[in-house]
What we know:
By secondary structure, the protein is an alpha/beta fold. Helices cover about 35% and strands about 20% of the residues. Helix 1 (about 10-25) packs across helix 2 (about 30-40) and helix 6 (about 105-115) runs parallel beside helix 7.
Amino acid sequence: xxxxxxxxxxxxxxxxxxxxxxxxxxxxxxxxxxxxxxxxxxxxxxxxxxxxxxxxxxxxxxxxxxxxxxxxxxxxxxxxxxxxxxxxxxxxxxxxxxxxxxxxxxxxxxxxxxxxxxxxxxxxxxxxxxxxxxxxxxxxxxxxxxxxxxxxxxxxxxxxxxxxxxxxxxxxxxxxxxxxxxxxxxxxxxxxxxxxxxxxxxxxxxxxxxxxxxxxxxxxxxxxxxxxxxxxxxxxxxxxxxxxxxxxxxxxxxxxxxxxxxxxxxxxxxxxxxxxxxxxxxxxxxxxxxx
Length: 291
């Protein structure tokens, strides 16, 4: 551990280089992590770090930064350290009661928006909303929509509702309940979900960063498909005819999810790849009224 300078800290460029080196063994993006943490400590945008590399943060800021770098080095995700995460250009508050929104999940949002592009005033259901990322992104993009977001966790619902209030997104309601149990007797034009889809014995659950996240939001049975099976089988009763189900899944689960959707009677079943070219979203349409 480096000693804290007596009077003033190193310049920004040196701090970032040192922190990046320290994080290289613990992070896939050490430089980005260092920049996010330093910008958080200094309460400045990341662009400030690039335009003022010669600035010298004070001793207190240096000490706080080194502490946060140490926490990141132990595996704690940056989003939990800072309490913030950007998703679909929305600044979300996050905490350990919910998963950290990931870039791959933006594929689900993009797919959902495509599916309802021609619908007027669509009704949307987001199952297992967590921080509210998906529901808030859809509500923000489609102010004419009515969005319902559910989660079984009281802490998650409270956080999602807080994010909605912070972002002043009003066309959304948050309901606590287990999957469809939160919306008995209701029907929607679109149902979306990013449910748990990791196998319970998957070694990825032991990764340094993953182990900080709530395991019940990650793992779903021996093959990771328990939650998806439940959602796919129950969804037809909660969809209007011609309505869509879009669900995020693991990159090796595309074929399995396609079979589940087809077996549940969905038509126009498709798999959508994320930006990395990996299977990420399965979708299907409820049987139309004219069939």
